[in-house]
């Protein structure tokens, strides 16, 4: 009898243990008793733009527009706000239609993946040359969809801009298949035909945009960018030089990146002093962030510790400093930068007002930057993005 009682007790103990395990397992699956809690939700927003440029022989004007208008586009994007949050900006760059690129890859090249390094995008743009070509729009869209790190949560503004002047139907990858894939990924395809509006319609550029709810636009790629000077330009340009002096290069790439910053200032100046002003304004916004090589930007991260930076990675003037002296040096440069950026932004507001009063151009909506910004403003509304004035 005693044996039977012991067996029953053992049975009930085992049953209780099984029930406990099942309850614990169920709670864990429902997220109510997880030993490792999930990471807190982030409210970070992104604007991701893939720019696909035709670099065949006839596209020199398009490439020149992209070079000269990059900072105008960046400045507009820097004014975006969503749910009281300023979104991060990432730009990717592809070239296609260039006979100098491998035919086996559809004459397509990823020039830069998604990056927030805007100096890198500028550098790569200025290195583009034209040659050839065979322009396969469906294939370059498809390639950008498969290679780039698009977000899948549906909250970000994710756009492809493809510009060219040959029929949208060329190549072995159907543009309809590529655009369908883009729509499934939450990516809007905007098409920019370099030529007559109706010719672009007839050669399926409009249909490509329509498939994803994007904008179809036509531009005159050989139209030169019209700049309007203002009384504030010289002061803003002078402040750019002071702004550069607040960057503290560190790490293995710091010196080269700081040199590239100056190089991209020079590239901007190739299109006139007003383009230097546009770039300077971009450098005063939150989207121009260089934390991978600049200690001032790096120090904005919550987990940044100057003691974690090896002495050999620091610039020469900091290597003999104590940690407290290093922190003060960074803070002094940060304060100086913020003061310079504040003055630049105040001057730019006056500049914007002045230009709005002066600018008269019938072709204002017939250039790459205006075509892109028109589409961005329209599509941003669906993601609750607004643009500060």
Which characteristics define this entry?
389 residues, alpha/beta, 13 helices, disordered N terminus
CATH H-level homologous superfamily name of the largest domain: von Willebrand factor, type A domain
Task: Give the SSE string.
Answer: HEHEEEHHEHEHHEHHHHHHE
Task: Describe the sheet with the most strands.
Answer: 6 strands, mixed
Shape: globular
Measured on Cα atoms, how large is the radius of gyration? 27 Å
**Total helical segments:** 13
Straight-line N-to-C gap = 88 Å
Approximately how much beta-strand content do the residues carry?
A: 5-15%
* Helix content percent band: 40-55%
Describe what you observe in this structure:
The chain has helices spanning 2-29, 60-77, 118-127, 137-147, 175-184, 197-202, 205-210, 233-244, 254-269, 273-283, 295-298, 323-358, 368-380, and strands at residues 46-54, 80-82, 88-96, 108-115, 157-164, 188-194, 216-219, 385-387. With 389 residues, the chain is an alpha/beta fold. The protein has two domains: 46-226 and 362-387, von Willebrand factor, type A domain (Rossmann fold, 3-Layer(aba) Sandwich), CATH 3.40.50; 233-358, no CATH class. It is globular, with a radius of gyration of 27 Å. The termini are far apart. The model is unreliable at 1-41 (pLDDT under 50).
Topology:
Blueprint: H1 2-29, E1 46-54, H2 60-77, E2 80-82, E3 88-96, E4 108-115, H3 118-127, H4 137-147, E5 157-164, H5 175-184, E6 188-194, H6 197-202, H7 205-210, E7 216-219, H8 233-244, H9 254-269, H10 273-283, H11 295-298, H12 323-358, H13 368-380, E8 385-387
Helix pairs in contact: 2-10, 2-13, 3-9, 4-5, 8-10, 8-12, 9-10
């Amino acid at each position: 009898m005693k044996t039977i009682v012991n067996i029953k007790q053992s049975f009930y103990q085992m049953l209780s243990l099984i029930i406990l395990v099942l309850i614990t397992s169920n709670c864990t699956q429902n997220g109510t008793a997880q030993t490792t809690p999930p990471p807190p939700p982030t409210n970070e927003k992104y604007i991701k733009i893939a720019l696909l440029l035709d670099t065949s022989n006839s596209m020199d004007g398009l490439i020149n527009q992209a070079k000269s208008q990059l900072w105008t586009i960046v400045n507009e994007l820097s004014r975006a706000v969503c749910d009281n949050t300023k979104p991060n900006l990432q730009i990717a760059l592809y070239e296609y239609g260039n006979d100098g690129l491998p035919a086996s890859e559809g004459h397509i090249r990823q020039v830069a993946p998604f990056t927030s390094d805007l100096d890198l995008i500028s550098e790569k743009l200025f290195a583009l040359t034209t040659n050839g070509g065979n322009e396969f729009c469906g294939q370059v869209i498809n390639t950008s969809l498969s290679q780039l790190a698009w977000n899948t949560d549906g909250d970000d503004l994710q756009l492809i801009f493809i510009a060219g002047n040959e029929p949208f139907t060329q190549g072995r990858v159907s543009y309809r298949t590529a655009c369908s894939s883009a729509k499934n990924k939450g990516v809007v395809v905007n098409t920019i035909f370099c030529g007559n509006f109706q010719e672009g319609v007839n050669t399926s550029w409009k249909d490509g945009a329509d498939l994803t709810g994007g904008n179809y636009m036509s531009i005159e790629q050989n139209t030169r960018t019209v700049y309007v000077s203002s009384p504030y330009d010289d002061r803003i340009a002078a402040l750019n030089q002071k702004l550069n002096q607040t960057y503290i290069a560190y790490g293995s790439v710091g010196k080269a990146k700081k040199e590239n910053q100056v190089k991209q200032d020079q590239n901007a100046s190739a299109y006139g002093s007003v383009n230097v002003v546009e770039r300077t304004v971009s450098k005063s916004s939150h989207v121009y962030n260089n934390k991978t090589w600049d200690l001032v930007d790096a120090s904005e991260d919550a987990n940044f510790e100057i003691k974690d930076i090896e002495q050999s990675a620091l610039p020469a003037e900091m290597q003999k400093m104590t940690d407290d002296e290093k922190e003060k040096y960074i803070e002094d440069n940060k304060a100086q930068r913020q003061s310079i950026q504040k003055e630049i932004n105040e001057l730019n507001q006056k500049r914007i007002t002045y230009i709005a009063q002066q600018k008269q151009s019938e072709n204002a909506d017939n250039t790459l930057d205006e075509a892109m910004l028109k589409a961005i403003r329209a599509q941003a509304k669906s993601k609750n993005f607004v643009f500060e004035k």
